[in-house]
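Quick log. Single chain, no ligands specified.
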Amino acid sequence: MSTRGRPNKRRPAAGMTNGEVLVVLVSLVGLCWLALAAWLSAELAGTGHGNPISWLADSDGTGRWNTAATGWALLFGAGTIVGVTPVAWLAARSLRRRQWTDSLAPSMSSGRDLQEMTENAVAADTARLGSSRAGIGLRLGRAVLNGVRLFGTFEWSQLWILGTRAGKTRCVAIPQLVEHHGPAVTTSNKRDVHDLTRGPRSELGRCWVNDPQQIAQQPADWWWNPLTFITTTERSAKLVDIWAAARSSADMAGADPYFEPEGRRLLQRLMMAAALAGEYVTRLPDWLTGYRPGPGVPDPVAILREHGYHAQATGIESTLELAPDQKDGLYGTARSFVGFLDAPEFVVWMAPTGPDDTRPEFSPTALVRSTGDTLYLLSKDGPGSARALTAALTAAVYEEGEEHAEKCGGRVPIPILFMLDEAANICRWPELPNLYSHAGSKGLILVTILQSEPQGEQAWGKADFRKMWSAANVLAVGRGINDESTLTALAKLVGDRQIADHSRSVGGRGHRSTSHSNRDERIFTEADLRALPRGRTILMTSGARAILLETIDYSQHPWAYKAEASKTHFGPQTGQEVTADA
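-> predicted structure:
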């Protein structure tokens, strides 16, 4: 096994490697074939039985090698070349794909660990769930151990941690989106997923593209009022939590222990009033001034009382009666959660522009009941981005999916895929870690893709992220990870292998002795995991040992031509190349 590029050249286990055994076998087969070809050539030429000794020793020449035998030998040689060349080409291609990690795959897991993820097993499970219309399952990649294709079931939630340029878009997001034949929601901070999958996804249903920051240069040809999400006080609190989480880390770090929770409660009450009155989200700035509404502006207190929410109405009145500094602090905190409403380019996606606006209104209810509609959510990173709207739309579709599942006996008829790429940056959904333990059983498949473990901890907190890590049915960690704690934990989860040591000694009188011993050695060290080559990922699933996975680039799938045609049609029209994350 070649160790070029491997930081730690640990001694392999005693005995021949798989590659050495293969060379010996090929050499033996080759020698046997040469002898057989010579024997057949001599036999067909009438020079005896092809015994080389008789050719040399025969005095009368009847058993010597002749021209006819040479002709037959050349014919056998040509046939051998024709037959062996394709096999040799395929073998060479396979060897070129091999990495230094691949010889360790048998030490990590066995074929039994893969059985639940094979195509036949997952297809049978999908049929059991009545979800075959959505496809086989969600493609994970190919097992390095035996080349078998592996799939995740439509009950498994996934968590992928892949560094930059590690293939999270080309090898995970795009293949799963294209091959999933059911409703889907996908988030991204670049246009590549949109450009490469919109064509194939359009064959399944309507594509809704939310692009407030013009990442893919899509016009606001539809709108969605976030207040339609609010049907209960619980949902009102969830939406405020989503918008609060979308703020910058600096804003959240400086949150006041009094104004922060009270400001949230104030906004919850105002949003509940707006939802009850059928208002658009654009009504909120009118109510966040700290003063009683003026002419032409409905009174949220009166709306709440009219619908029986007396405690919430009293809460708003109490806030208005506070001392000016205290009241201003609460209203200022509440305004900070909806700062995105100051941007007209965002508001146009959340409300009609006027009575003559004929754009359709997006319905999360319709999407979860469709056979294959897709919601693309595009946002840049950081403060001032559209991630508050991205997370709100994701949560709205999920909540509607849950309600649909409950009405259908606990599971949606067609699984709904939530492909949350760059979720820590553009889809800070506080409830997400808590959903990993039960979403899959409802047919709501969560696939979260992050760049590192610290990124997840920053977005959801250490305890909640550990909850997501532990509850994920599929946990995959690939190249580009530099966090020491992640690498150490991963090395322990992969486990150890036994190394056989042999030693020989010679005594003073020439007596020779041999001793044998076994010792445990980490299959992968932290340095090994940090240096994982392109296309190799450590895969851990429920009830199986760690598996070495080969992730497959979308360009190697039979539908790749559709993705390229989609990029040509939906990509930039200026001739600029669109490159998916490698």
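The CA atoms of residues 186 and 419 lie 5 Å apart.
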